[in-house]
Design brief:
By secondary structure, this protein is an alpha/beta fold. It has 8 helices and 8 strands; from the N terminus they run βαβαβαβαββαβαβαα. It has a single domain, classed as TIM Barrel (Alpha-Beta Barrel). It starts with a strand and ends with a helix. The structure holds D-xylitol-5-phosphate and zinc ion. The site of D-xylitol-5-phosphate has 21 residues, from strand 2, strand 8 and helix 7.
Amino acid sequence: MLIAPSLLSCDFSIFRDEIIRADKAGADLMHLDVMDGHFVPNLTFGAPVIKKLRNATEKPFDVHLMISEPHRYIGDFADAGADIISFHTESDSDIGETLSLIEERGVKPALAIKPGTSPDVVLPYLDRLYMVLVMTVEPGFGGQSFMPDMMEKVTFLRKEIEERGLDTLIEVDGGIAKSTIATAAKAGVDICVAGTAVFGEPDAKEAIDTLKSLCE
Ligand code: DX5
Ligand code: ZN
């Protein structure tokens, strides 16, 4: 299991140090939650902040866009150094065109789906995707409870990926903790985002090691 600590739960007054802390603790990717106060009822940070933080680590930047009209900002996030860009199928941009913008920039494309969205919507694009992000909470805030029902989507997508012979990764985001990560692992998840479960713990390395060990 790969662990992507969500910086949403870090101490933003020492953002760079928190990335370095997560890196040293064994994070596989850095999950960066971009919120616009419109697509979700919360605001975080944008491309200029990510650009300034890019050289804090060599770990991949997994940028999760929870914004309206994501197609307008793909260039900015690519310039900022995003390695993976996820955007929501529920946002108002054309999905195929937005994926093309990401592909043209050489960034790995991913589609994210909210809890109420059927995984069917990603099927027409699955062959083009580096990753599918299945939300296991309503997007907007850290510290919410994991929705186990979402594992049906993971099982469904895993089967479809295998049948097509793809290597598309499945990421889950929201409520991942010691008590829930084994459920995600069993369903066939490749990457778990974890905010509170990493940054809310006194020892981030121990937290990540424990989460990984629970998937074995
Ligand atoms: C929620 C964000 C998540 C969030 C997860 O909209 O996409 O990445 O930070 O936080 P936890 O792990 O605390 O549920
Ligand atoms: Zn996220």
